[in-house]
Structures are given as C-alpha cells and as structure tokens.
Design a protein that fits this description.
398 residues, 13 helices, 34% helix
Length: 398
C-alpha cells in the first residue's frame, strides 16, 4: 500500500516530465489520469492504468531501491503454442489483463499483453511481493543470519520489545497466525491496511514497526489466521535487521542476478526508507515468471542451493486454512489441494506455480476492484485450471 503526495508541485514536475518525455506512452498514461487523492486503494481505474506501470518513476512521490539484474539472462526459449479452451481475448478483457506469460517445462507456451503494456515494461506486484519476502527468510536462514523460524520476532526487531509481538514467532508471522488484531478491508478507509500508510512514526523507529507495536491481541499466537499486510512488512524489517542489507540488495544478490533476470527491478520504499515488503516490486512479467521457475528449480542456482533443504516443500503447502474453501496458506504463499501454489496481489497480480506439470503462469492486471473472489478471483482460478487441462490433454495425446 502506498501514500501518495499530490498538489501544485507534483503538477509542475509532471509537466516538466511530459515536456522531456512526451513521446513515451507510459508517461502519457500517467499524466492523462494523474491521481488526485492520497491512496492507491481509492484511485479510479484510469488512474491505476497509468500508475501501475510507472510507480517508481517519480521519486517525489515514492522512493525506490533498485534490484539489480546481472549480465547473464536466463533464456526463455519459445515452445509450441499452447492450445487453450478459453476465449483469451474475452478473459483478458474481463480481467483487465496487462500481461499473461505461461511457461511450461522451461519454454514460453503463451505470452500476450493488454492495456497498451509490453514485455519491456514493469508492472507493480502488490502482494505478490509477500512471496519474495518470505523466500528471503529462507535465504537468510541458509546464510546463518536467522537461526530458526521458531525464534521470536522481537529478538530481531528490538523496537517491538514490550509489544504483543514478544509472543509471536517468525513462523507465525510467515503463516499470518500471530493472533494480533488487524483489518485488511481494502475498501474501508478506516481499516488498518489503509490507516497504517498515514501513520506518523515515532522518532527513529521504522514506520511499520511504529504502527504495529501499538496493536492489540485478539487470539493466542498460532491459533487464528488473519491476512495482514503489515506483518509481511515486519518480516521485511526482520530480514534486513538480520542480514544487515536492504531487501533489494539481498534479493539481487541471492536470486535476481544469479538466476538471470532480464531487467533491473525496483522495490518501493516506505516513509522511513525501508522497502514496503508486503507490496510494491516493479518488474517485467517475464521476470515474475522466472521467479516461478526458480521455485520449480527447488530454489537452486546453477545447482547451488539458495534456500535450506526442504524449505520450498514446507513453505508452499497448507499450514493453515483460510476463509477460502479452495485455498490454504503457507509461508506467504496461497496453496491449492493439488500441490500447486501461488503468489497473489490485489488488482489481479499473480504467479501460479504447478510443480507436477512444471508450469508457471505469471499475470498482471488492473481489476475493477482491489479484490473480489466471487468474480474476477474465481475466474482467474478457472483459467489456471484451463491451463492445467491443456497441459494434461497434450500429455494424454503423446
């Protein structure tokens, strides 16, 4: 989630930007529908269409750290076109899709873009970033920076000591079972997920930590699942505290460069300069797909393990039931009963991973609403099933 500052100064800087880059369609998308309020959750569809591809372009709105790519890009060879029993144009229209990339057995089987977006562009991730953040916990354990997920959160974030998080383990943060009270209603301006962006932090304290340490408990730790973006932000603070590195540098070092992502990505910063780790990576859709391939490759780069043995298997199975009958929750991954799992973000961002079929589906969208499972959410799950059915049909015919 992101607090945006707007006004006369913004308009003037945008005007200068337009003068300099008036041939760039992404700038035109943004300036044609410049956001006029302070929160992405309440922008219009047109405002989001422009901003989602340019979130890191204007440092006076939000700072960003670069996730540096390396020189060696992991090839994505073209495979034969996947025959889908789906009206793909209608599906992309209904989803307001900016991009869909389907990788099967290491080959690109389908790739299409919408909303005037392209393969060269970068789209914001929203909560897809949660799965990146949890994976960095695994990397930090493998590197010896974090001893165990059984450790208490406040052992790594001293400014949380004396709060309800003294009783919360790292694993309970990862599975969102802290028992701390939180409201994630994206359409309620008084919810925690909306209000904590406007919180004025205590001097010298990280903005997320300053807000979260004032929360109260509603259930014993480990006993209740509630989706909490604020707690993923805490996980990011914990990883940075443990490693002594920014999340952007650590992600670049462990995965982005060695695995061969094609472009630099960025990670937006909160008020006090830390990455918004529950949100806000900007990356090419093909690089989101490559991250899915990294997971299919058991978290290894050139045969070298980045994650502890068994981490992916533990992280991507159901640790706790959710309010969706069709999906559980692992370590910041949504899980399905057939062994597949997904990173998902509001407004339709996603990375779907099916180890059994060696399948990755990366998609970016701008749904009409931040989240609505009975409509666009179920439609996307049905699309995943259609892709799986197409793979199964091919295998049966061979």
């Amino acid at each position: 989630m992101l607090k945006w500052l707007v006004g006369i100064v913004v308009a003037l800087v945008i005007a200068v930007t337009v003068a300099l880059f008036n041939t760039d369609k992404h700038v035109r998308h943004l300036v044609t529908h410049l956001p006029t309020d302070r929160d992405v959750l309440f922008w219009s569809i047109e405002q989001r269409d422009g901003a989602f591809r340019t979130m890191d372009w204007f440092p006076f709105l939000a700072g960003a750290n670069v996730i540096a790519a390396g020189d060696d890009v992991k090839a994505l060879p073209e495979g034969r076109p996947l025959e889908l029993d789906v009206d793909i144009d209608q599906y992309m229209q209904d989803q307001r899709s900016a991009a869909i990339v389907i990788i099967h057995d290491g080959q690109v089987r389908f790739e299409k873009y919408g909303l005037d977006f392209t393969a060269e562009g970068r789209w914001t991730s929203f909560s897809v970033a949660k799965s990146f953040t949890s994976t960095l916990v695994g990397a930090a354990i493998a590197d010896g920076h974090i001893k165990s997920i059984d450790d208490m959160v406040s052992d790594y974030i001293p400014d949380l000591r004396g709060s309800v998080y003294d009783d919360v383990s790292i694993e309970q943060l990862l599975t969102m079972t802290s028992g701390v009270q939180w409201n994630e209603d994206y359409e309620d301006p008084d919810s925690d997920v909306a209000r904590f962006n406007n919180h004025q932090p205590a001097p010298g304290v990280d903005a997320t930590v300053s807000y979260m340490r004032n929360l109260s408990r509603e259930a014993p730790a480990g006993s209740k699942w509630v989706y909490k973006t604020g707690e993923t932000n805490l996980i990011g603070v914990l990883v940075s505290s443990a490693t002594g590195k920014t999340l952007s540098d650590y992600l670049s070092e462990k995965i982005w460069q060695p695995y061969g992502m094609q472009q630099d990505a960025t990670w937006l910063l909160g008020l006090t300069g830390h990455e918004i780790s529950g949100c806000c990576i900007q990356a090419a859709t093909r690089d989101y797909a490559r991250f899915g391939m990294f997971m299919l490759d058991s978290g290894k780069v050139n045969g070298n393990a980045v994650l502890p043995e068994g981490w992916i298997e533990k992280a991507t199975v159901t640790s706790v039931d959710t309010y969706y009958s069709s999906k559980g929750y692992g370590y910041q991954w949504w899980t399905y009963s057939d062994g597949s799992y997904a990173a998902q973000g509001i407004f339709g961002q996603g990375i779907f991973i099916d180890p059994q079929r060696k399948l990755v589906v990366a998609s970016n969208s701008n749904w009409p609403r931040a989240s609505h499972h009975p409509t666009v959410g179920q439609q996307r799950d049905a699309f995943y099933l259609a892709v799986q059915a197409a793979i199964d049909s091919e295998n049966a015919a061979e």
